[in-house]
Amino acid sequence: MRRPFARHSGRAPAAPEPWPPPLQTSALTAPLPRHVPHGRLWRITRRVVAGVLLGGALIALVVAVRSKLLGTTPLAMLLYQTHDSFYLPLKGYTFTRFFPGSLVWYGLIATLFLLWYTCYLADRSLVRRAHLALLRQTVSLGPLRSALLGVSRLLLRLGLPPELLREVAEHERDLATLRLAGGDDGAGPRLSTLTRLLVGVAALRPDDQHATLQAADAWQRAVCLLAARDHREAAALAPLILPACARALRKHGLTPIDALAGQAPGLGAVPCLTDAIRIALLTGADPASLGADHDPRLGAVTARSALTQGLLAAAEGRRAQVDSLRAALERAIARPFAQHADQGLSTMFADAAMDELPTLGRLALSAALMAAFALRSGDLAQGAVESLDALGLALALAGPVAPPALVEPARRARAWAGGLPTPADRQLTASLGLARITTLALAWRPFVAYDTPVRQADLALAEARSDDQFRAAGLGHDANLLDTAEDTHP
Question: What is the pLDDT of residue 38?
């Protein structure tokens, strides 16, 4: 049965440096959005110096013109003439003639200028908080999505990417995710609207692979949670990402059917995009939207069993690669002077840009959890989460003793796995484990007495794994995401 749970906070993505381990902070208690400008001290110093020099030069020029200190050179005569023909009439007709009433608009203009100049010198935005408050009220309104995307498209053409809109939408999406995971199914439409907005913002840059991966990540996390909650919005969102993923695959020389039929598991962008298509088809997208009706392989590669097996193979393949790196790091910890690292590890993340790695890591884990959900396999989800936990520990411990051949793979692996698994990932893992345990308990009940050692010890031991995951997420059994039958004494 569904149970409410206390809210918990997500984990912020870790920085890409390999060691020491990053501090995990809450994205919901931090300022909104988490804007950390670089070079602020240098900009403030430069602006203050420039302001002092410019102000001093203007004051000196005014004194020189009023006192006729520049002589009778042609430049001096031009300045005198400008003062008499432009400045004096402007002052007379806007200030002197209407004095003291002119103090009102002169004072208003001076106040606005001082406010702007103070914010400029301090490198702070005058309207940022108001802008944030307005965006927070509008990003979740479906009718305004087209208007927001239209303005963003115009700003992007002017060289101003809509980063603030994206950050606010992501923050509101995280809040909606927490509400939905906590049992509030009314947050489903809000999460769907924010996901559509995030996908639309990413689609403004169709030639940018990173933007496509960000769109797939936002969509995939929402669909996985909605599907776990058995929410109708999961099917409504299912076809949303297919065009972007298909376009990105074609840039790599693959059609969606080619990718579904023969894409080998891996940690790069193409396998993650292929998994996103599998998830879309599993959650209700129409295979006809792939535009391959003439391809005889369509039926075979889009069958539910084939899609599930594809997700399972991808999850197991990635886990094997991650475990190979972890094992190499553990050998380096045990034998710090050995230099026999597997050279094949250096190519694990070589085909992805550094800024894409955190997104690829989230896509890979959510695809593994989606495969576990489709198979109702708590062990598969548990294995994916434990593999990341073990990798994080090995990365933290192996820093000072890692051989040179492992330094770059470890640095990229830390960016890939940084901040994973999140509390929401652990919550779904624990829920899948609890659902499996409950199923087994109900199956055994007619044959095993409730108070036998099998019931008291074996099932209690099995439940301990789910307990660990719930506690790691800061939750309890009442945070179960799935519909499970009550396992109570008859």
Answer: 65
